[in-house]
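User: Show me an example of a complex going from sequences to structure tokens.

Assistant: Sure. Here are the input components:
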Amino acid sequence: MKTNPGRFFEDYRLGETIRHATPRTVTAGDVALYTALYGPRFAVQSSDAFAQAIGYPRSPLDDLLTFHVVFGKTVPDISLNAVANLGYAEGGFRRPVYPGETLSTVSEVIGLKESSNRQTGVVYVRSVGSDAAGETVLSYCRWVLVRKRDPQAAIAEEHVPSLAKVVDPQDLAGALPRLDASAYDLDLAGSPHRFGDYQRGERIDHVDGMTVEEAEHQIATRLFQNTAKVHFDNHAAKDTRFGRRLIYGGHVISLARALSFNGLANAFALAGINAGRHVAPLFSGDTVYAWSEVLDTADVGRDDVGLLRLRTVATKNQPCGAHPDRQGEGYDPAVILDLDYWAFMPK
Amino acid sequence: MKTNPGRFFEDYRLGETIRHATPRTVTAGDVALYTALYGPRFAVQSSDAFAQAIGYPRSPLDDLLTFHVVFGKTVPDISLNAVANLGYAEGGFRRPVYPGETLSTVSEVIGLKESSNRQTGVVYVRSVGSDAAGETVLSYCRWVLVRKRDPQAAIAEEHVPSLAKVVDPQDLAGALPRLDASAYDLDLAGSPHRFGDYQRGERIDHVDGMTVEEAEHQIATRLFQNTAKVHFDNHAAKDTRFGRRLIYGGHVISLARALSFNGLANAFALAGINAGRHVAPLFSGDTVYAWSEVLDTADVGRDDVGLLRLRTVATKNQPCGAHPDRQGEGYDPAVILDLDYWAFMPK
Amino acid sequence: MKTNPGRFFEDYRLGETIRHATPRTVTAGDVALYTALYGPRFAVQSSDAFAQAIGYPRSPLDDLLTFHVVFGKTVPDISLNAVANLGYAEGGFRRPVYPGETLSTVSEVIGLKESSNRQTGVVYVRSVGSDAAGETVLSYCRWVLVRKRDPQAAIAEEHVPSLAKVVDPQDLAGALPRLDASAYDLDLAGSPHRFGDYQRGERIDHVDGMTVEEAEHQIATRLFQNTAKVHFDNHAAKDTRFGRRLIYGGHVISLARALSFNGLANAFALAGINAGRHVAPLFSGDTVYAWSEVLDTADVGRDDVGLLRLRTVATKNQPCGAHPDRQGEGYDPAVILDLDYWAFMPK
């Protein structure tokens, strides 16, 4: 067999390391497409002049573009036969990434847990995105429910890893260069609100909505070289329970992040991902809205920036003025994403 | 409130200056997307080698890409609560813009006129797009009909500005570097017709048609960081009188300009915008056609280029062999755009 | 007439040379769009670091991006009034092309053959894509069925050229720089299979499927500055026998090539095109699948790479596990493309 059928649950071994294909040089072309697909307006990532004024050598990539490129490489080895993408934890953006850099990804299998019905199992991986010199730019854990080829196959060693509920903000503090917060122009950035203006418990409706088209999510998902066929093959999708293509969960994350500009314009860089859950699928024609809650604020000993712990909830076809949220054991039926992360904001 | 609800008519003050977010570094990625979204074929903007042969340092951006980027920034402050974009005047492209430059926009409120029913008012702004050094690259006036938050609110000072019906071509003459018209290769440019071959009153049907898809105009409008929700939120649009998303008027301008290549291939750079009107809305699935009339020709004392004053009319779902035009007080029902502008053409 | 109505069959002269508009500088922006539109994952074209490790100065363009740009220029002069694109032969990629290079195209009319009903005729051209210095980067022959303006018009001279059935692989051997095959990292490339692992007669189902949207093929076809109206004008298409827009045949070639990664990940560069036929049209909403057959292997005296002669067959709405193929005089009704080409693979 010269083609990749994808791995099944019994093909993974605890502790094994997988070097993923295909390394990818990110460019100004990717940045333009990212802007066109999601509409982010964070000034640091949009303007070299703005970025340079506060101490960057030039505009860095949107952190989620880095995330998607690093993530995309893992799909052929990790989630081609996945039933569901269950969660994220311990995500850390180690430094800004710039156009011209080459990213590649290695994953370590850090957990395996067979389902009680023996049809599937949960694979836990820690994926590390590196630059051409091998230095880490991003690492995160995710766990996915993967089919077994043979329900009877035995699993050599099982283990459920203990993952932090929240990334320690001190561990994220060094991810940005030293910045000149006094040169951060609030008019050009689009909001007068700095780190000190946000309070724990504050809720912000991001107001705007964005309708998603098939062409858009396909273009995005291919840009990230994410090959999961559920996003691309409508002929095969007709026979699934949804009857149509599923939109890559990361597409929702990027839409929610871009929408969050309206209320969080100065949360200009992601620092860490504490937890993330794709609560329900998104389909073409649906309109995405989002709201955020300030879960915490962290002063990490820098006089230029602080960290906000944010929880951004995205919905489909329901504006977020009422902050649709968890309900009992589950969620308001409109909720599709619940993401808990740290972001930098100027002081 | 940390989110931007948009300004209402009574929030504007005559003479006030608004510095818009978000500065934007334009790149080769934006150029590629612009090509892919509209299909322009003007050789100067397409080929560094062609541009250099006639005296440019490299290919400049399509002038309308510059226009859309400069325009997009004004939307959150000027037209978020606009009912209609009424017109343009006194537009001038001051110099070519190149990939790598950073653009930002400042608008001055030059006119305010409340409607007689006091529900709305017309806001006139002069928007100036500048480079990182603060030098103007483009300025234009536009006026929009904006809702009042409170119909009873008083307006401090009203004024209807007097705007030129036509930009003086002498004021535009210096917008291009000195070019070597003898090195302008007509085969590569796609047409044998130079400045002297066009006559006032001449009408040209641009023949080709272009059907627009939702994904295309959304991708374009986000690329320009234009945030007007009528272009993106189909869930909200269902309850409007159109029942669907409206396409950004600038999308029509760019389509018409790209179509105009067939007949005006050597009108390679825009110089000024005299007047512009979005006569009717365009929707996804519609096909855009265009025709142009030569309103005037201007020899501005350069031996390399002259200026054509062109009026380009775009229609939807109706080819333009019969030059559909004004009818009585209004327009042929197929007309969607009436744009009057100056363009450079080699002698 | 200042607009281009396209040439008709009687407008061509045997031996004439046509310099096509519009030269085009290809950039990292075009590369990003190509990735986003087709999803290729070949490591050499994706990663500067990977390319440099084996001896390239940086990542070259995907060869099909070069092909489409070179091809696009010929459309206004060759195929605007074409009824059908009949075939390709004698295609040779002469060297890698890099972002920043400017491509232009010249075609020579090498054959003319009027149809027996005198309504149409076949035009054979050899199109040569060159860099800014005039050096050839790609040449290929194609022949198209073109309408006559006047069925009675006489044809000065007819000739059916004799075209090679297969390009001699020795003539293609020099198209790549000398590479260090030992530095070719099979993990990062995505497959352990080198040149020696493929056998004549081997058949590979590429498994994955890709559904095509109107916005996608229009964005791609405009990127290539291909102006054939059948791809863009749905208003006019309603009155054709298909009743809708046709997708550019080159779009299918690129999709099939990208799908072929799954099974041919190390066939990283195209060398030549022996033959190609668009067997049936593709429409928006259709899903493309592909399979390949190894027609031949050629050792061309290089110790770094060999050449595989591949035949890639694409289908619509039918997976290729059963290798749908020719049937009697024609083809399995699902087949849309039959492409015979040479590709380099590391030893």
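The lines above are the inputs; the final block is the predicted structure for all three components together. The longest strand of chain C covers residues 102-114.
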